[in-house]
Design goal:
mainly alpha, 10 helices, 259 residues
Amino acid sequence: MSKLPKNYQFFDFSDYGRLPGSWIAKRLKNTFFTPIHVTTMFVIVGFFAVFFILNEYYISAAFLIILKSVLDAADGELSRLKQTPSYVGRYYDSIADIILNFFFLLSFWYVSEISILLMLSAFFCIQIQGTIYNFYYVILRNKVNGDSTSRIFEDSSPKALKGESQKMVDFFYKLYDLLYITFDKLIYYVDKKAIRVNLPFPNWFMTLISLYGLGFQLLIMAIMLIFNLHFYIIHFFIYYSALSFLIIGIRKFLLKSQK
């Protein structure tokens, strides 16, 4: 199930996990498994991938990174199938992603023996890239009445949805805010006029920014591991940030007529 109405769906390079994720979700629909269980599964899978990277089993690690991406899609699919939207689940998913991203890069740093400053720079870059993708994607979803669990401005704890505790929502929101506020505010201030665009972003633009989606980032990591290019992963994601200037430039200068 897409987060967007059919007319606004686009080819998403980062969404390759949707089909197998949907297959998994359909088989879990009538079981006791919840989306949060699936999120926890991808956290476990992610840390197993870190373990394999540290022990130089790179092909196994690559497989687990892709599996993590598939499970990351499955938790949202299961939530929509069971019609159980959850702010706790939404924040838990994002918190798990940023923690795993850090440990993936930390493990690449360990096996590459390069500067820790480069690793931290790559972590900052990879989060900025993901924030660019999410920023424009959430704006689109809000404009076309798509999935509303994510908000353009995560500036306050939302009201708990049916079946979840307000205290848990508040706790996970505060943790999410602590981890993401710097990245979210930076992208907003770089292109704050994006939210004023009246018409939805065109599909080709959304396809372009999907190159910064977490799923595609993980796919790049996996491919580089398979070809024994782990020494270059950290450097790659630093240089890959150059694409952000093109993306933001297109939005600000070519799509400005849509105001």
